[in-house]
Amino acid sequence: MTLFAISDLHILGSDDPLYQSLVVLIRDRATSGDKLVLVGDIFDLFVGDKPVFIRRYQNFLEAVADASVRGVEVHYIEGNHDFFLKQVFSKMPRVRVHSHEVSLELDGQRFFFVHGDTVDRKDYGYRVLRFFLRSWMIRLFVSLAPGILIDRIGKMSSYQSKKRKRMVSSDMPLLRMEYLRKIFRSYAAEKLALGFDFVVMGHCHDLDEMFFMIDGRKAQYVNIGFPRLHGSFLSWSLGDEKIHREKLP
């Protein structure tokens, strides 16, 4: 049994090279009994079950459906670019969509996964925005609005967001990078102190990891990073003492 985890691909469309890498990973690596955790922001935009997104990412959806049929357990944690997805996967066995986090226990080891967009508790502007985007008003709008309109609005919002902030930690001002790394590690330490052996996060695009000694046991925090730059995903197999990074296919 192998556990795979990936996040923050921010796939831009079906012709994005990372899209094919994701499909190959799901089809060729995940076998019966394995676990696959998609830790948010897999796509730069995928909101609801609109046909425009279903058609665009049909190969991905078929790969996930096939994996679930052959015995792979899939967990999709919604990020800040991909949400309202439960209906998309509702008919796929062994696929679960989570709005915030998921915990798993494998061979006596406890894993905690969260996208990470709410880790910075002082980012009040984003927290208000996140609450609004997941409100019943937006859910109703998404259910009634044409998919093409949602796609257009989402692309415009994403473009403006990227103009305002850096995409990778190497482009961030040093103080901002240090601040985010500190609060992500602190959050991970809180979860590890609750008895988890591994904490996995994404969102901040920081290729970071750290080991902690907690009550005499060794525990690990890993941030997945930014696959578009770092080209990697995470894996863990029975008997492993740590989570490993592997190169994307």
User: How many helices?
Assistant: 8
The helix/strand series, from N terminus to C terminus, equals EHEEHHEEEEEHHHHEEEHEE
Shape: globular
Q: Which architecture does the CATH hierarchy give at level 2?
A: 4-Layer Sandwich
Description:
This protein is α/β, with parallel strands linked by helices and 249 residues long. Helices cover 37% and strands 24% of the residues. The protein has a single domain, classed as Purple Acid Phosphatase, chain A, domain 2 (4-Layer Sandwich), CATH 3.60.21. The strands form 3 sheets. A 6-stranded mixed β-sheet has the order 6-4-2-1-12-13, covered by helices on one side. The protein has a 5-stranded mixed β-sheet with strand order 7-8-9-11-10, with helices on one face. Helix 1 packs parallel to helix 3 (58-69). It is globular, with a radius of gyration of 18 Å.
Quickly describe the structure:
The chain is α/β, with parallel strands linked by helices and 249 residues long. It contains eight helices and 13 strands.
What characteristics describe this protein?
about 250 residues, alpha/beta, Purple Acid Phosphatase, chain A, domain 2, 13 strands, globular
How are the SSEs placed, and which strands pair?
Layout lengths: L1 E5 L10 H13 L5 E4 L7 E2 L3 H6 L1 H12 L3 E5 L4 E2 L11 E4 L2 E6 L2 E6 L9 H10 L2 H9 L2 H18 L9 H20 L4 E4 L7 E6 L2 E7 L3 H4 L1 E6 L6 E4 L2
Parallel strand pairs: 1-2, 2-4, 3-5, 4-6, 8-9, 9-11
Antiparallel strand pairs: 1-12, 7-8, 10-11, 12-13
